[in-house]
Design brief:
18% of the residues lie in helices and 32% in strands. It is built from 12 helices and 38 strands. A hairpin with a 2-residue loop joins strand 34 and strand 35.
């Protein structure tokens, strides 16, 4: 996709082009007194400035490692603060009054990204990890103002002059961040700032999901935890809050479970072999998405010395089938070709690795014709030769877009022999040399801005397709040829491209699917209808062999967009709705926000990762979506009450058995409905929301001689919920072989 913001904006000034001028002294002079009077008059006529500011009430006292709530009050110099909400969404929907908060050190300042404002007041929960200076950027969604508040956070001594211990838990995760994989042992290290008394003897680590359900609760010896010799295992992917408590009690006086890591429940069974240590009332058990876990409860007699909090992200591990071309997930933002050469091997490779972690193996790469061919008789393949191998090494396949104009002329390309030969030679070289890497080729980006008449662009597409033929008449093997991405879906423009000659040469049509109203939902923006119209267009033109490429979609987080929760919500809804209506590939914009490297600029808040590559909620939702919907086929849509239910078949994969997965949500933010679904495959029933929190499944009817199959009830709200009707394990693989696909209930094995 091609985002509206896909390059680093630089503010440049060219002084060399300015001519030297001589100025005469004015014929009149103004005294200092007259200047002051004039300034006063202008200031009075302009009126008092509406300098809206935010102030911390009562000075905003912050104490390290203590959960507290600060109150921010909106004030104004000379005028009443503006509180009228602006209407920019469909259906005359008013925008909420919110204060957006961005700490400079997000790893050590735990707080929400926004707070609702009521009566010019915002109450914000905050937890500062350790003694430090805290800087928080405030952005007012109503007044559009921005400011930064700074506070020193220092330990406060008690009446005896003693300062408390300060714990800080670190997780040895992916890329040095608190990001790990589900069902993988992850090292945790406790850092301590000494305080009053002896070193606390033990620590409790509690992990809670986004619905505040505890999934891990374990006690550790403080010395072993500080030495980095302890690990934790989270049984399911998602977003989690980690609480660490320092205790004065030794571990011998605390409850300990026999099994301290999750125990998987076999497919087709409801329980796992699981023994619980005594006393049972202090060690409880529960099922977390197919695993049995033991929770070591904190005794009421335990002495808590200090506490730490942090956010943790757990990714699902994708199946090996991610390399197959029918996976629909692409992410824009890792366009290494635009980076300085020195950054590609460092920052660029990091971006590609993150793209794979998120579950996408496809990315748009935009190349300028003028960069490849500075003049009609010469080519420069250096950037492509150095960049595309990096994509191949990291197993990310590019959608290569070659766009103009040529270095020696203006848009659109002229039909001169020299220009046509130059274009054809370049396209032929790209197609023949880079086909193992490139998965599709697009001639031009947003062609409707260059070829106002679609018939002219249709001719250009045909000439591009003809370039795939060698001078001796032999056709070369090429990646699919896809139309240039339209900034808006346009039935007439796309229809004009589907000439009889082009239909047999093209591999697909492409258009962006950005919301016209960034504060509104996909349904309010009509995004699903546009994909359905594209499918109807292909059917009406007898071109159903062509694929639908959605080359860009995304919502910004912030005052001009949506909340982090809604961004993640709309991400899932957009992908599921597009897939249900026949989309082949869907590109999300963008991989990360701008900040650390100018080469990965995304418009404010549109990244799945923030500027420091920490996954946002949308990044968590993207990983869960790609994990849950990997390899899906045969979409279907049904409605129960006001709940939309989309179903997909799941083939056999290296990390899951065949079955059916449902994605369900309501279209009203305040509505919760009960639905019933028949679970038929008998391997297991797993329900979890878009951020990985488990959703209760209530069995209301059973099937004879099957512990799993039956009818289940689920509570569905506005946030998407995945319901996986998993199948049972197939027959044991022959020696030395592994399953690759499931066709007509028959497992196919491959050496």
């Amino acid at each position: 996709m091609k985002s509206a913001v896909n390059a680093v904006p630089f503010l440049c000034s060219s002084m060399s082009s300015m001519k030297t001028r001589s100025f005469k002294k004015p014929a009149w002079r103004v005294s200092i007194r007259q200047s002051l009077v004039l300034l006063f008059v202008l200031t009075y006529l302009a009126g008092p400035a509406n300098a809206t500011t935010w102030e911390l009430q009562n000075g905003g006292l912050l104490v390290p490692n203590r959960a507290t709530t600060i109150t921010l009050v909106r004030t104004s110099a000379g005028k009443t603060p503006q509180t009228t909400q602006t209407v920019t969404s469909p259906g005359s929907q008013a925008l909420p009054d919110r204060l957006w908060l961005t700490p400079a050190d997000s790893a050590n300042v735990v707080m929400p990204e926004y707070a609702d404002v009521k009566n010019n007041r915002a109450d914000v929960p905050i937890f500062v990890r350790g003694s430090r200076t805290v800087s928080i950027e405030l952005r007012d969604s109503i007044n559009g103002t921005s400011q930064t508040i700074t506070r020193d956070v220092k330990r406060v001594a008690n009446s005896s002059g003693e300062k408390p211990w300060l714990p800080r838990l670190t997780i040895q995760g992916e890329d040095g961040l608190p990001v790990t994989l589900a069902n993988q042992s992850t090292t945790v290290v406790l850092e301590l700032v000494p305080g009053a008394g002896a070193m606390p003897a033990s620590a409790q680590i509690v992990v809670r999901d986004s619905r505040d359900r505890t999934v891990i609760s374990r006690f550790f010896n403080t010395f072993e935890l500080a030495a980095g010799s302890e690990t934790i295992t989270i049984p399911a992917a998602g977003e989690y809050n980690v609480i660490t408590r320092l205790l004065a009690d030794p571990t011998e006086n605390l409850p300990r479970a026999r099994y301290r890591t999750p125990v998987p429940i076999p497919y087709g069974q409801t329980e796992a072999r699981f023994e619980v240590s005594e006393p049972r009332w202090l060690v409880t058990t529960q099922t977390v998405l197919g695993s049995r876990v033991a929770l070591e409860q904190l005794p009421t007699t335990a002495t808590v010395v200090a506490e730490d909090q942090m956010r943790m992200v757990v990714f699902g591990r994708h199946s090996n089938e991610i390399q197959r071309n029918h996976w629909p997930f692409a992410i824009a933002g890792s366009n290494l070709i635009d980076m300085p050469a020195a950054e590609r091997q460092t920052w660029g490779v990091r971006l590609l690795k993150w793209q794979r972690r998120l579950g996408s193996s496809y990315a748009p790469v935009n190349v300028n014709w003028s960069a490849i061919q500075p003049n009609p008789g010469s080519f420069n393949w250096t950037d492509l030769n150095r960049t595309l191998p990096l994509y191949r090494k990291e197993m990310v396949r590019p959608l290569l877009t070659v766009t103009g104009p040529a270095a020696w002329e203006q848009n659109p390309p002229t039909e001169t022999t020299a220009t046509q030969m130059a274009w054809s030679t370049m396209i032929r070289h790209i197609s023949s040399q880079y086909i193992p890497v490139v998965w599709a080729l697009q001639p031009w980006n947003h062609p409707e801005t260059v070829w106002k008449d679609p018939a002219q662009y249709a001719k250009f597409l045909l000439k591009t397709a003809d370039a795939f033929q060698m001078p001796n008449g032999e056709r070369i093997e090429t990646p699919p040829l896809v139309t240039g991405s339209l900034a808006e879906f346009d039935t007439n423009y796309l229809g004009a491209l589907l000439t009889p000659e082009n239909k047999s040469r093209l591999g697909g049509i492409a258009f962006d699917l950005f919301p016209r109203y960034p504060q509104a939902s996909p349904e309010q923006n009509g995004l699903e209808r546009k994909v359905a119209y594209a499918l109807d267009l292909l059917r009406s033109r007898q071109a159903t062999g062509l694929k639908i490429y959605v080359t860009g979609s995304g919502w910004p987080v912030g005052p001009n967009g949506v909340t982090p929760e809604l961004q993640a919500n709309y991400l899932v809804r957009t992908h599921v709705s597009a897939l249900a209506n026949g989309a082949y590939k869907i590109t999300w914009n963008s991989l990360c926000d701008s900040g650390t490297s100018g080469s990965s600029v995304a418009s404010d808040g549109m990244g799945l990762l923030d500027a420091n590559l920490v996954p946002r909620k949308s990044g968590v939702a993207y990983n869960l979506m790609t994990y849950a919907l990997s390899g899906i086929t045969d979409p279907g849509v049904s409605i129960q009450q006001n709940v939309r239910i989309t179903s997909f078949n799941l083939p056999l994969q290296t990390n899951k058995w065949p079955g059916v997965i449902y994605v369900a949500w309501t279209n009203s933010p305040n509505q919760v409905q009960t639905i019933q679904l028949d679970m038929k495959h008998g391997g297991g029933v797993y329900a979890f929301d878009y951020l990985g929190a488990e959703v209760p499944a209530k069995k209301i009817r059973s099937v004879e001689n099957d512990a799993i199959a039956g009818t289940y009830e689920f509570q569905i709200g506005y946030n998407p919920v995945y319901i996986w009707d998993a199948g049972k394990a197939p027959n044991r693989a022959p020696a030395g072989r592994k399953p690759v696909e499931n066709t007509d209930e028959k497992t196919v094995w491959k050496k």
